Amino acid sequence: MVDDTAPAPPPVTLRRPVSLRRTERSLPIALLRAREAVMGPVREMLAQSPVNEQKWRVLRVLDEEGPLPLTLVADHACLQAPSLTRIMRAMEDDGLVSRVTGTADRRTFIVCITDRGRQVIADHAAASNALFARLEALYGKDKLETLLDLLEDLQAVKL
Amino acid sequence: MVDDTAPAPPPVTLRRPVSLRRTERSLPIALLRAREAVMGPVREMLAQSPVNEQKWRVLRVLDEEGPLPLTLVADHACLQAPSLTRIMRAMEDDGLVSRVTGTADRRTFIVCITDRGRQVIADHAAASNALFARLEALYGKDKLETLLDLLEDLQAVKL
DNA sequence: CCCTTTTAATTCATTTGTTAAGCAAGTGAT
DNA sequence: ATCACTTGCTTAACAAATGAATTAAAAGGG
């Protein structure tokens, strides 16, 4: 019945957890869980669109800030350079953005949102705002504003 | 951009130019940027360990909550089922966790952290707590507690 | 009991994240 | 000007995320 050659099961002792903060109080984990909690409807919205989460962030950033150097697009959209390279190729193919070579430094590119890219935003702005309104209603307007203030501050912290 | 000079009339939903929130005020984007802002040192810490971000979360969750059904591990560690399948295989091979088939429902698994897995946490608990202390100092203890409170509430919101 | 519908977990295909390496263009010191 | 060095972007290789399809067990209804 019992196989002598089978590896012994790893030792599992019932013990108290080592002294770490509760995961709800770990900032990285809490930020991740909070994001997951609000991303469900956003993903549904984007499923109705020609872009995914990442491309949506690129469009939002460009629509808000205007033409931007590629490195700043990466920073502001929270994308790594290699990912952005791939995404830029796809978005250019789809006519959502365009790029021009920088004049001063010919290594750099300036990225522009196109009318077509802006149209994608316009097509989903109502749904996006509706989601935010629902969140405000469920979570509380004041709490949401306070949370956004605190998050904005946190982004500025230089560890 | 369409002009919107008229004060908001009652039928406010249609034909009104829709503009979006600033990206700093978009909760999904703000949460993502805030997380990126704090993850740098955490990644450095985990680079010194045998686990990555995802496995670290699994260990933290199991250490804190004890043996858990696989689906709850996925929920609490913010991992999708297919990802967790792959990660579980690797972590079992490394002897960090073990699983037993559920007694009532034989489709399910209960996941346990092993002594070895707990040791990984113990080995990095000091560094982890030091990072948190540094964040407290730079960002402000009260602000951090408020932020964590708000994030904890947000996780509970059911959209 | 069968039959249909769920649920848990896995697999598969495709895209994205991550890390390291590479290349071309800019910078600066001697 | 030349050389080493840095910077901006790309490529490549592999791990992880995502979404759809699959298998197995459980649950519910006739």
From TrEMBL, chains A, B:
Segments forming a coiled coil: none
Biological processes per GO annotation: negative regulation of DNA-templated transcription; response to stress
Lineage start: Bacteria, Pseudomonadati, Pseudomonadota, Alphaproteobacteria, Rhodobacterales
Residue ranges occupied by any HTH marR-type domain in the UniProt entry: 24-156
Protein's name according to its UniProt entry: Homoprotocatechuate degradation operon regulator HpaR
GO molecular function per UniProt: DNA binding; DNA-binding transcription factor activity
Entry-linked NCBIfam families: HpaR
This protein's UniProt keywords: DNA-binding, Transcription, Transcription regulation
Superkingdom field: Bacteria
InterPro entries: HpaR/FarR (IPR012712), HTH_MarR-typ (IPR000835), MarR/SlyA-like (IPR039422), Tscrpt_reg_MarR-type_CS (IPR023187), WH-like_DNA-bd_sf (IPR036388), WH_DNA-bd_sf (IPR036390)
Statement: the UniProt record of this protein carries the keyword Hydrolase: no
Designated gene of the protein: hpaR
PROSITE patterns: HTH_MARR_1 (PS01117), HTH_MARR_2 (PS50995)
Statement: the UniProt record of this protein carries the keyword rRNA-binding: no
